[in-house]
Structure formats: structure tokens, C-alpha cells
């Protein structure tokens, strides 16, 4: 049963990027020690279990972040691990955060990095990208390619049928991403082999704005590799983690974009939702600090793109 | 906060294998069309949402399977995707199935195939393998190595601190596992590079019975590769999917074991929990069919090991 019929994912994402004039998305990673004290004070109920309390706290935190940035960013990337760690209460909070963000018009990219085979992959895909009564049905998710093409297929099928998107891990932002992803096989690195797999899916997933709904995760901490992959994959949108806390700067990321000023969305999590703890924003309340940090990040990226002559609007 | 202090995971698993004289575990993959009609009739409540109903149904099904096999198998492998697809209600069922199985003395290997970096990996690890108030704290989980060594570390640390276990994807049972895993890099296949990573973790995770608590997932559908990996990894326990419905036969799996008659646990999901739908068991009730299928599988594997002179008891 179809619950919605809308534009192709990648066209919706690009529209939001252009309307907000912003290439940056906000990572909702509600780590326990980022939750502001006033939310603990307001929401913690000592007669409930810790898991139930944490579910309520992280939902409240997610909601306040969304309220503070929904009009200035194209979307959010909730990281499910920080919800899943509180079991069913955490997943309830995750579902509520995703629904709240969608109701506010945000693109929701659930960072779940799932990867499995056959009917198992279909079960994941039907939940995240399906249109069943029981589906969460976010706009897009991240997936892990280690199990190969047939493990990706059920997700791709739902993307096409339901106008959803995927970001497949290509080159991740962490130090050990080299262990597997950089291995050279017959003149190609593993991450390039994954890139080829994504390029092979382009034809059936192209939108009307020159990009495909099957994107790639490319860590902002690897400038050279990012620029190299960009040249290989002109029509692939990149989801770029690693900005801020992990070390990538705006100037490192210009080469992750195409000359049309599109092609990448840059994620920041702690740098936005934990901004109120940074020296720079320390006298500002949680939500105001997050909004200010999101505006600063937007302007920083736009400035570097402008200087490089890559402007999309 | 520590909730339990017990023997090293791999020693506990081997003890259960020897006590039950069984190398086979039962995969709890409660696919909607495997749930027996009488459970639908008993549990479905039309005033509740589909997701809530499905949570109740799959818990009931899992519980009945556990009741039917807990005394004859070493453990179970619940596949989280079939629970996660029903959101928070599904995860509640997953938690309840895992707790119920643990209370019955079964080893619980949660098939979650998680893989992420830094504090995200720690959040997953603390939930599945931790000893926090909010931890599910099963015995072991499966993880995906695509993100490299530092993505595995938080899981390994919890294994050592809390006597838990891991099974890292090496060579999966699906057809496309060759896309990435079989690539040849400098004379080594990617799955051998992952094997080396696991061997490197042996020293800190060895139990008292000659095996390490950091195991490998090796698909039973790849006989030659399985035998090859076995020779490289003498002290690694294999979790072997692919028996039955996916095509691996008992005779294919002898070479996945060491000469001591240990070294592998063979999983069957549909072949056990869906046995009542097979011609062979068609006049038997759901739970009896599952028990009979589990006994037949146990005997089949033991017979082949006996014929090969690989007997552990």
C-alpha cells in the first residue's frame, strides 16, 4: 500500500538545498553527555527505567533541535545507534524524531548502515524505505556494501518504487577506513569498486536534475580521495561526514562538489547539536547555539564554494 | 555497572555444544509468512496497530520455538531485521525473545551486522555487549568489517571486559559476496585480509579451550573457501549460515570444523522454524516439527563429523 507519491528523492533533496541555500545537514547524534541540563531537569522521571527516561530525553532534544533549524537546513541525519542503545524506548524516540522532522518538511536521512542478504535485506528495506503500514519510510538511509550487489538490490528497488534514496558507504571518514576500503585490486581500490557498483545503478535511479538517487558516503577527512571519487562519479550525490569535530574544514570540501555547485551534502553532528558547549557559543542557550552554528557552517561552505566559482543559485 | 561475571564467551559456547552434543543453532527469523496460523488466531487483536500486533506475534512465535528446542541446542541466532521491521514494537519483541532464551540457558547470538565508527560503534556495543542498566547484553553479535579495525575495537573491548563474543563477517553465504570479499589484493583476497584482522585479535580474546571469543562468519555455501579459511584460522570459531534453504549440505561442512571436532556452529533458520511447512514434517504441529528438524540436523552434522573422524565427545 502506497502512503505517498512524490518527486524522486534526489530532486526533492536538491530542491530543499536550493530553497534553503544550504548544503549542510544536521546530524542528530543524541549522545548522553550532549543532552542539555535543562532537558534532564524537565524530563527525567525517577519512577521510570533509565531506558524509558533516555528515550524521552533524546526525543525532546531531537525535537528542540529540529524546531531550531528546520527552516534553514535541507535535512537531518539521525544516527540510529544513539537511539537503538536504549532499546525499544530509543527506537520509539527515533521514529518520533523522524516523523517530527518529516512533518516540518525536512529531508530525513537515517544513518543506519544496514547490510544483509535476501529476505533479511528486504525486511530492513521495507521498514526504512517501504510504504507498508508498518514502515517508518524515511527519505533515505545509509547502507554498507560489504555483502555485495545482491545485498543492495532490495534497497535500490524500494528507492525506485517509492521515490526514496540511498547513500552507500564508499570511503568512510575514520582512520581505519583504509584497512579494507583502500586495498588495491587489479589497479582499483575497493572504494572505487563500490563506486563502480553505484555508477552501474545510475541509469535506473536518475532524477531530473542531473543526479541519481543512489548516492555515496565519502568522508570529508579524505580530501584527495574525495576529489578523485568526484571526478569518477559526476552524477552521484555525496553524503559527507567528518566536518568539524572529526577534522574536515570547509576549504577541504570544495572538491567534493561539482562545478554546478551541487553534488554534496555536508553533515555536522556534534558541531551543531553540541555547539552550546563550545567556547564560541558558550553564553547561548542550546537551541540558539545550534541554529547559530548551523548558519555559520552554511555560510562557511557557501563562501568557499563562491570563491571557487561553484555556485548553485 | 556489571550485571554478571561469568566464563569467557567461547568457553561457555563450547560447553553448551558439548553438553547438548550439538553443533547447530536455531536462527529465529520470524518472517511474516512463517508464523503459524494458530498464533495469528490466538494473538491478533484487530483493535491494535499492525506493528503492535506483529510485535506480539513474533514474540509468541520466538517463545514457542525456544520452548521446543532449548534443551537440545547450544543457542539461537535471532535476526534483528525481522523484528526491527516493526519498529519499537518489534524491538521490544526482540529484547523479550533474547531475555527469554537467556533465561532458558541458551547462548544468544544476535545477528545485527552492525558496523560504525567512534562513539557510534560504542553506542551499539554498549547496548548489545555492555553491562549498563540499559544494555540488552546478549552473548554475542555479528559485525561488519567494511569500516576497518577502529570500527571493530569498541566491540572487542566489550567482549574482553564483559565475557562476550563477536562474529565478524568474513565470507558471507550469498552469491554477490564475491563482489567485494573475493577481490584479490596483493595476493590476498579481501576475506583473507579480514581473517588476518581477526587472527590479530586472538591473543587478547583466547578462552581456555583453544579458541578465541572473536569468531568469523563463513557461509556454508562456499565449501572450498570455508575449508581454506579453516586452515588459516585454527583458533577461530566459525558461525556458518547457509545450511538448508540456501543450499549447504552437512557433507559440505565437515571441512569447516577442526580435527578436534570443534570450530563451527551451523545455523538453520527456515529449515527449523519453518519445518512445519515442509513435506517431511507436514502432519506435525509447528513446535514439534521444529524440534524434530533440529534433532535431524544435529544428527546429520554429527554423522558426517563422525565419518570424518572429527568427534568432540
How would you describe the overall organization of this protein?
Two copies of one chain form a homodimer. Chain A has one domain (9-305): Alpha-Beta Barrel (TIM Barrel). In chain A, helix 3 runs parallel beside helix 5 (87-103), helix 3 (50-69) crosses helix 14 (286-307) and helix 6 packs parallel to helix 7. Chain A has helices at residues 9-20, 37-43, 50-69, 81-84, 87-103, 118-129, 149-162, 178-181, 190-199, 202-205, 223-232, 250-253, 270-273, 286-307; strands spanning 24-28, 75-78, 107-114, 140-143, 165-171, 184-185, 188-189, 212-218, 236-240, 264-268. By secondary structure, chain A is of the alpha/beta class. Helices cover 46% and strands 16% of the residues of chain A. An eight-stranded parallel β-barrel of chain A has the order 1-2-3-4-5-8-9-10, surrounded by eight helices. At the A-B interface, helix 3, helix 4, helix 5, helix 6 and helix 7 of A face helix 3, helix 4, helix 5, helix 6 and helix 7 of B.
* CATH topology category name of chain A: TIM Barrel
CATH class of chain A: Alpha Beta
Assembly category? homodimer
Mind summarizing the main beta sheet of chain A?
8 strands, parallel, barrel
Strand content of chain A: 15-25%
- Name the biggest interface: A-B, 61 and 61 residues
Annotation, overall tally of beta strands of chain A: 10
Could you tell me the mean pLDDT of chain A? 96
Distance between the termini of chain A: 38 Å
Helices and strands of chain A, in order, run as: HEHHEHHEHEHEHEEHHEHEHEHH
Indicate the radius of gyration of chain A in whole angstroms.
19 Å
Shape of chain A: globular
CATH H-tier superfamily of chain A: Aldolase class I
Unreliable runs of chain A: none
Q: State the helical fraction of chain A.
A: 40-55%
Integer count of domains of chain A? 1
Describe the strand arrangement of the main beta sheet of chain A, using strand numbers: 1-2-3-4-5-8-9-10
Amino acid at each position: 500500500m502506497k502512503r505517498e507519491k512524490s518527486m524522486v528523492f534526489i530532486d526533492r533533496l536538491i530542491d530543499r538545498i536550493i530553497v534553503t541555500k544550504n548544503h549542510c545537514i544536521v546530524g542528530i547524534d543524541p549522545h548522553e553527555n550532549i543532552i542539555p541540563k535543562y532537558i534532564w531537569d524537565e524530563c527525567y522521571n525517577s519512577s521510570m527505567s533509565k531506558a524509558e527516561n533516555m528515550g524521552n530525553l533524546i526525543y525532546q532534544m531531537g525535537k528542540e533541535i529540529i524546531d531550531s533549524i528546520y527552516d534553514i537546513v535541507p535535512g537531518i541525519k539521525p544516527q540510529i545507534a544513539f537511539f537503538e542503545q536504549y532499546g525499544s524506548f530509543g527506537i520509539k524516540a527515533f521514529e518520533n524524531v523522524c516523523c517530527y522532522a518529516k512533518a516540518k518538511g525536512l529531508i530525513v536521512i537515517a544513518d543506519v548502515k544496514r547490510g544483509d542478504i535476501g529476505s533479511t535485506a528486504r525486511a530492513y528495506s521495507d521498514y526504512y524505505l517501504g510504504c507498508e503500514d508498518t514502515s517508518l519510510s524515511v527519505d533515505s538511509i545509509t547502507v554498507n556494501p560489504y555483502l555485495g550487489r545482491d545485498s543492495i538490490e532490495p534497497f535500490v528497488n524500494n528507492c525506485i518504487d517509492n521515490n526514496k534514496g540511498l547513500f552507500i558507504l564508499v570511503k568512510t571518514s575514520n582512520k581505519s577506513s583504509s584497512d579494507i576500503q583502500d586495498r588495491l585490486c587489479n589497479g582499483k581500490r575497493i572504494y572505487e569498486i563500490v563506486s563502480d557498483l553505484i555508477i552501474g545503478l545510475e541509469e535506473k535511479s536518475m532524477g531530473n536534475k542531473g543526479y541519481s538517487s543512489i548516492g555515496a558516503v565519502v568522508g570529508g577527512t579524505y580530501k584527495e580521495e574525495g576529489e578523485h571519487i568526484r571526478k569518477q562519479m559526476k552524477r552521484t550525490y555525496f553524503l559527507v561526514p567528518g566536518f568539524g569535530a572529526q577534522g574536515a574544514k570547509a576549504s577541504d570540501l570544495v572538491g567534493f562538489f561539482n562545478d554546478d555547485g551541487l553534488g554534496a551534502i555536508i553533515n555536522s553532528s556534534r558541531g551543531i547539536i553540541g555547539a552550546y558547549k563550545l567556547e564560541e557559543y558558550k553564553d547561548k542557550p542550546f537551541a540558539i547555539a545550534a541554529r547559530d552554528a548551523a548558519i555559520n557552517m552554511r555560510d562557511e561552505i557557501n563562501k568557499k564554494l563562491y570563491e571557487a566559482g561553484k555556485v548553485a543559485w
